[in-house]
Amino acid sequence: MTNGDLHSPQSANSRQLGTETFLSVIVSTRDSTATLPDVLRAIRKSDLSRSAYELIVVDDASTDGSAAIAARYADTVVRLAGRPSGPGYSRNRGVELARGAVIAFVDGDVVVRPDTLSRMLTLLRKRPEIDAVSASHDVQSGAPNFVSQYWNLLLSFGEQRHSGCCAQFAPGCGVVRRAAFLSAGMYDEWRFDTASMESVELGERLLGGGGGVLLSSELKVTHLKAWDLKSVSREVWHRSRVLARSLGYLRMSAAAPSEVVFTLSRTLVPAVALLGTLMLAAAFVPSPHSAAKGGLALAVLFLANLPVHRFYTRARGLGFAIVSAPLHILVQMVAAVALCTGWVLRDVFGDVSPDATVQAYSEVGLETWPPVPRRL
Amino acid sequence: MSRAGVDSVIFQELPSPSTAIPSHDALKSAAPNRAAIMPANVANERRDGPRRTPRKSLIVVLPENHVVSPDLVTERLSQGGSADDTDVILACAGQPTSIAALQRRVRDLQILLAPAGTTGEDLRELAMNQAPGDIITLMGGIPAWE
Q1: Hey, what's the torsion of the CAs at A86, A90, A95, A97, to 10 degrees?
Q2: Which positions in chain B touch A72 (Cβ < 8 Å)?
Q3: Which member of A72, A81, A367 has the closest CB to residue B124?
Q4: Residue B50: which of A69, A70, A368 has the nearest Cβ?
Q5: Crossing angle, helix A318-349 and helix A290-304, to 10 degrees?
Q6: DSSP letters along A16-41, please?
Q7: What is the ipTM for the molecules in this complex?
Q8: 8 A C-beta contact, residue A67 and residue A142
Q9: 3-state secondary structure of A293
Q10: Is the dihedral of CA B80, B81, B83, B84 positive or negative?
């Protein structure tokens, strides 16, 4: 299917949505048999009438039989062969088949509430100036282990503080007008071949197109993915590196302040400044003990992160906040190192691009299935 | 498939009325040979190299006492582009009724038979495992009494 096919007269409809707007729900998934049944059942239990939406599942080269699970609930299943191409690429393939004037993206580990999709549609209907709406994390649910709780709360903290209009098109669950999505150029599948910042980047382009992107703190969804220390560190590393290398830290911090990388790194600058000042003052104190210096540094970081710790205390109690404090500092350090790495990579090697084969195939316009990643 | 009590399926192109529904025991014994009874063209095409266009499949799911209008199937086929390029699989639970018209309308209709009582969801999963397509559309029938 070509881009020309996508820009049909039906898709280029006006911004006013009728009461019978057809919705295309696209679930991109990879190796998620553990969560996919719950995710798809929740969509099917939506309070939308069954004739008001279609359910398209795009299986990104799973090896665990996710496609068969998807077939139990979906109207259409797309199987992408070969190596995984990333959620942005998968969602684009789903949109190419979608018939709805509004597209909903739901991740393969995100459970919507019965009224989530209908409320999102209502928001788009009532506010024609808005092009996209996304839901935020539900802090009361998700995987029960400590690291998952910490991570979901951290994401929720940014979403609560910076909800409203911004470039944060949350990948977990969001709806977008099809016409706006297409005119923005769809997801960037050239640079984002793994799950990272593709939705934030799309949100920025939607904003640039003149439409609004709304991150709602009232619409909540449950993220089922279980995180551990390694996966959280890898996620933070990846997001921070991509942000610094491909998107531009300062520009994105203004456009999408709720992004978790900014939650982690925003406090580092004043903390370092304050710590520097205190260390300078300590130079006039004869021989401060090294333990005192370390304690001072930790105290400064703790104070800089006080809003996060207070949020944790309110959500899970003082004990959880105390235990999560060292983890938070560790994750902040990962973000700081990754940001620096991203800046160095950007200056030395430039922006991310796919491997030479993909570039060559794209250059000659080779038609294959699955398609060669498309350049914006 | 054990969660639905479905142990196996038979996959064939044009069943004669006398062989349409094998016994449950026969289905059990057929299970290990599923690959052997899969149409050769399906097995061969799975081994094919890269293609220029996606291969499409349409799965029609008919739980017990459900029927489907041949017009609806052909309409869905025409929506997806060229009907000749789409594999059509009819997944039935129990004795399929009124499928002669569909067989006449759809060339190379493949029929997947499962024991009576197999749920629609299990039929979908079974058919999905047999479908060769990259883009698989699933549609259901309606109760026969409607």
Answers
A1: 160
A2: 121-122, 124-125
A3: A72
A4: A368
A5: 90
A6: ---TT--EEEEEEESS-TTTHHHHHH
A7: 0.86
A8: no
A9: helix
A10: negative
Burial bucket for residue A128 (CB in 10 Å: 0-12, 13-18, 19+)? middle
Coil, helix or strand at residue B142? strand
In a structure prediction context, what are the per-residue pLDDT tens digits for chain A, which is 376 residues long? 444 444 443 444 456 677 678 999 999 999 999 999 999 999 999 999 999 999 999 999 999 989 999 999 999 999 998 889 999 999 999 999 999 999 999 999 999 999 999 999 999 999 999 999 999 998 877 788 999 999 999 999 999 888 887 878 887 899 999 999 999 999 999 888 888 789 999 999 999 888 899 999 899 999 999 999 999 999 999 999 999 999 999 889 888 888 999 999 988 877 777 777 877 777 776 666 777 777 877 888 888 899 999 999 999 999 999 999 999 999 999 999 999 999 999 999 999 888 888 888 888 888 888 888 888 8
Which residue numbers of A have CB closer than 8 Å to B's CBs?
67-81, 97, 367-370
Please answer whether residues A329 and A337 qualify as being in contact, where contact means their C-beta atoms are separated by less than 8 angstroms: no
Report how far residue A117's alpha carbon sits from residue A2's, in angstroms, rounded to the nearest whole number. 28
Q: How many residues can be counted in chain A?
A: 376
Neighboring chain B residues of A80 at a CB cutoff of 8 Å: 134
Instruction: List, in sequence order, the alpha helices (H) in chain A.
Output: 3-6, 36-44, 66-71, 87-97, 116-126, 146-161, 178-183, 198-208, 229-242, 249-255, 260-265, 268-282, 290-304, 306-316, 318-349, 356-364
Half-sphere exposure of A262 (CA within 13 A, CB side): 21
Confirm if A150 and A144 have CB atoms less than 8 A apart.
no
Q: Do A369 and B52 touch (CB under 8 A)?
A: yes
Partner residue facing B135 (CB), from A69, A76, A368? A76
DSSP 3-state of A135:
strand
Structure tokens at A39: 């995710």
CB contact under 8 A, A73 and B50: no
* Cβ(A198)–Cβ(A171) below 8 Å: yes
Contacts of B50 in chain A (CB under 8 A): 368-369
Q: Amino acid letter at A94?
A: G
Counting Cα atoms < 13 Å in the Cβ hemisphere of A44 gives 15
CA distances from A376 to A3, A190, A218, A373, B53 (A): 12, 7, 33, 10, 21
